[in-house]
Amino acid sequence: MAGESEIEPLNLAGGLPDYEGLRIVEGGGASSACGFKAAGIHAGFRADPQRLDMALIVADEPCPCAATFTQNIFCAAPVTVSRAHLDGVSYGTARALVVNSGVANAATGSKGLEAAERVAEIVGEAVGCPACEVMVASTGVIGVHLNLDTFVSGAPLAVSALDEDGGAAAARAIMTTDTHPKEFAVSFSGDEIGYAGCTFTVGGMCKGSGMIMPNMATMIACLTTDAPVAPDVLHEALRRAVNSSFNKVTVDSDTSTNDCCYLFASGAAAPSAQPFDPASDAFALFEQALTAVCETLARAMAADGEGATRLVTVRVVGAATDAEADAAARTIANSPLVKTALFGHDANWGRIAAAAGRSGARFRQEDVDIDIMGIPVLRAGLPVPFSEEEALRRFERPEIDLDVDLGAGTSTAIIWTCDFSHDYVTINGDYRT
Questions:
Q1: Which range marks the domain in which residue 123 is found?
Q2: 232 and 124 both lie in a single domain
Q3: Domains of the chain: total
Q4: Residue 426 pLDDT > 80
Q5: Which are the contacts of 160, defined by CB distance < 8 A and separation ≥ 6?
Q6: Does 287 lie in the same domain as 360?
Q7: Domain of 385: which CATH number?
Q8: Which end of the chain, N or C, is less packed with Cβ atoms under 10 Å?
């Protein structure tokens, strides 16, 4: 791992979907929205004193908070505790999120649960809020207990480091095997949607490179907005955004024990306004901004998959149902044979066809078309001649597109993944050592 000063953020500007009315916030992240401060410090969870390992995001006032969590039965203690702090319905009111890296606090039994609760108390005391208003998250090695003394000494340091420009440090502090911090923010004007003179922002950060195929969440993500949104409405918007972004990412088909995604809404950009009406143009634009941030961060996770050299976008069209489109795209994206072929710059369409064929999606092979990086390689279930030299040239692109038309209906799906390199095995073979 490079020193913190050497780690460059991913260039995410090119990942913003074509959403009218949104503006990229330069250097934006989890503290870009009004009403939030963030910090990233070295507290001592990791041995390297140059490596940040504790992140803190704090709202100026208690505010609506929504979350999605892993559905892994082996869920970590911080997931259980944070669910309880949101009354078991995944939305409510909160003030802060604390994240430590290095130790997952998963598979730690009652001691781990007690530790997660104590972390909330320690951070709450430092921030000046009740423990129930603190969300907790951990990432790192499973089966290792947290050192609470590190929180006792680290929490006051993190609070003293809180800053409106602290999002970048927080994004670095949550990294594990990530090679780049992942943060992004967009803003939109309120002039045409009934909030003249107001500018609303949605920003966020996430981490994740391996053990990535989220189920209702991502590895760890924190999103913030200064738009006024009620907690239950915020949760529905988050669920939709997560389902179209983080839940469409796979690196290695594994779902983490610690997955969580939090969204805080301070309302500070329009402090006297009522919450957005879910049927209003203002809410529609907010949800568009939220989706743009989540999709951009999701693509960054796939691009930074452990050992990855290329971001891979798998598009399936012509499926009989949405579920079958997703199944076909996900099976292709997860296929080790497909992923290793892409690493080897091999336009091996047979592996793509075989993956689609075992996905459970219903189609006839004689109706299938496949393109690799825009090159037709299969038509009506039969191979077509193509230039291997041209394919090799296109493999030099930073993103590889795989397009499959099943010819069985009108449903579509997109999954983001990456190739598999030798380094994936090295990273995961040495993870605990």
A1: 4-303
A2: yes
A3: 2
A4: no
A5: none
A6: no
A7: 3.10.20.340
A8: C
HSE-up (13 A, CA, CB side) for residue 364: 5
Same structural domain, 30 and 66: yes
Does 15 share its domain with 141? yes
250 is known as an active-site residue: no
The first and second tokens of residue 199, run together, are 């500018």
Reply yes or no on whether the pLDDT at 1 is more than 50: no
Tens-digit pLDDT profile for residues 199-250: 999 999 999 876 667 776 767 999 999 999 999 999 999 999 999 999 999 8
Query: Is residue 251 domain-shared with residue 323, that is, in the same domain?
Result: no
Own/partner contacts of 85-92, CB < 8 Å, gap of 24 or more, are 85/120, 85/131, 85/132, 85/133, 85/134, 85/135, 86/135, 89/235, 90/66, 90/235, 91/64, 91/65, 91/66, 91/67, 91/231, 91/232, 91/234, 91/235, 92/64, 92/65, 92/231
Same domain, 292 and 394: no
Which pTM value belongs to this model? 0.90
User: Which one of 108, 150, 218, 257 is the catalytic residue?
Assistant: 218
Give the C-alpha separation, 226 to 188, whole Å.
11
Please tell me whether residues 315 and 219 are part of one structural domain: no
